[in-house]
Amino acid sequence: MKFTLSWLKxxxxxDATLEEICxxxxxxxxEVEDVDDKAAYKPFVIAKVISAEKHxxxxxxxxxxxxxxxxxPVQVVCGAPNxxxxxxxxxxxxxxxxxxxxxxxxxGNIRGVESHGMMCSEKELNISDSHxxxxxxxxxxxxxxxxxxxxxxxxxxxxxxLTPNRPDCTSIHGIARDLAAxxxxxxxxxxxxxxxxxxxxxxxxxxxxDDERLCPGFAxxxxxxxxxxxxxxxxxxxxxxxxxxxxxALVDITNYMTFDQGRPMHVFDAAKVKGSLTxxxxxxxxxxxxxxxxxxxxxxxxVVIADDNGVESIxxxxxxxxxxxxxxxxxxxxxxxxxxxxxxxKSGRSLGIITDARYRFERGVxxxxxxxxxxxxxxxxxxxxxxxxxxxxxxxxxxYTPKVVDFPYSEVKRLTGLEVSxxxxxxxxTRLGFEVEGTGESVAxxxxxxxxxxxxxxxxVEEVMRVHGVDQIKPEPLESHAAVxxxxxxxxxxxxxxxxxxxxxRGMLExxxxxxxxxxxxxxxxxxxxxxxxxxxxxSDMSDMRPSxxxxxxxxxxxxxxxxxxxxxxxxxxxxxxxxxxxxQRRVAGGIRRGTAxxxxxxxxxxxxxxxxxKPVDVFDAKADVLAVIEACGLPMANVQIEKGAxxxxxxxxSGTIKMGPKVVLGHFGEFHPKTLGALxxxxxxxxxxxxxxxxxxxxxxxxxxxPPLELSPFQVVKRDFAFVVxxxxxxxxxxxxxxxxxxKLISGVNVFDVFEGASLGEGRKSVAIEVLIxxxxxTLTDEDFEALTAKIVANVxxxxxxxxxx
Length: 807
Fold this sequence. Notes:
single chain, about 800 residues, alpha+beta, 7-stranded mixed β-sheet, 6-stranded mixed β-sheet, 19 helices, 43 strands, about 25% helix
């Protein structure tokens, strides 16, 4: 939001300096982003040409003697056709930076004649595009004074970074109101427009609002007999200062109102409007040629103003070229309307149109200024273009019902820590335009029509705080915890951090991928539900919330591979989405390995294998990553089980599911299904995993008494091997669990060391060989003890899995 200092002072009576105003704006939340104090124009002075002689070596050049008011005439070589003795213009001396030509002047030698500066044109000073001659001022212009001050070019331009919740400060009047409320001057009250009204607005012209939710109010006035030429210099100068190009008086007036009062207006050439004006949704396929000379294809989501000719304007965003005003316009329809902010924002985004009108309407304009804005615009049109005004037509608007917020003054202290008296809080709110009703410690506050951002008492606290002074809040240290190293993070936060460290320690790099993925990828990984589709995706290929971390990681790995980095090990700890409820969001640690990026050496190393190509990653690398995360999170590994049955995006024979008990699924791992990789356009040796951190049970409370230290047994470990013939569907984990439970005091470990399948065992059978570690604790075991333990192991395996001891 840009404005000039003199423009601000049209609304604010103050003696404050530019620096004080900028400091106060930032202090009350209207952060000053840039100040152009027009210092570049200060070196230019008004000078008079004493004499103008023909250049001795150039027919089109003249040698001027110029008086800058200091009694020391300087010689200037000039090629302007209007250079003459007696001309008063703008002189730039050597060392001056000339913005229009981006040159810093020096003493020059032009065709053998020295030139000590230049007489400037309007283009060279960036005042206009005119370069037909040098600036020609009236004879009574004060020679020797700064040209910028005389021409009004020394008006500083202030730019503030306006937050989306402050639509009231999209106008210079609103900014002045805030400054006045902060004590930096007095807000000027604009005189109520007064002009004669003759007749009615196009007696036969009807205004139809199809849906008053999209257009809650519409005001229109006809002005006959206008003369549409250039706007006055003061208006053009202000518009140029804030970066707008003057077009003609009628258009410039609407732009002026947009910034001056925060009220976007629109003008139609009345002669080009045919029939009634209807505010409606656009028809599918309808198009409009807008004022930016671009044609837009509309949808029923866009609201338009139409007549018998078709669409004349995109409501609240941009007018149409057909009914635009030009130098031939004699009768004009002035429109002031209210629009639904959400629809304006969606329409502007879908059409790709950014205008000053959209910027204000999508934030919310003052509904009570719809009609006064029409009156003020009419006054400007009559003043600058002449004509006679007709009676206004107002349709749809039902008035403003103020929101009432119950406000206990104690909330200021509770939320900010500031000690602000009730009298000061009341005064601040009143100066900002709020109506405070009641006495005592709690009051009812009526919200003014220009503050749609105020909803509750916390918003009122913010108003008191920013005007009282945010810098008055004293910093205080966080409350200390009762115990040293007291717990701050939740269990889930701790496990998220632990999972990151565990995976990073295994040589993986952390990645951050988008939470949005294409619909096809979402469906591929079990998602694609309707409630998880984005209403306004930032791109067409980011339409759905991700059900898994793996699509993003896989495509990231492929991008690296396409750039020559094929051995990639990356992970991410973030959220996935199964439903649109808080319970449907999961905290997941996921990762993938590609190429030869295994834990035990990646890349083409001579020690990896005989050919030097490196061992490709496989399911066991993913399994090791999963187990590392689970162990790091503190879960008892003895209770962790690995089963078949991973989701469909994994390879069915090279994947698994990790559980704790029969119901709690901790995660999945494995190599990826070829169809999955094909659908993602991903190639190479790939394995991956996902661990559900939020599915891990909370750790049990530790006993208060100290456990006795673990004592090492003085007896030697004994190993016994067993080979069991079981059905092919039997998992090795089931055999390990059965063997371990035979005697938990004596058996310290069970490992699988061989699996055999062959015709000698019979179809659908396999042999699984295990090594059982037996650790005596109290005495040396006898042969009878070993025979009894062996029998129990065999009986347990047979009972649990149906396996028999291999002969």
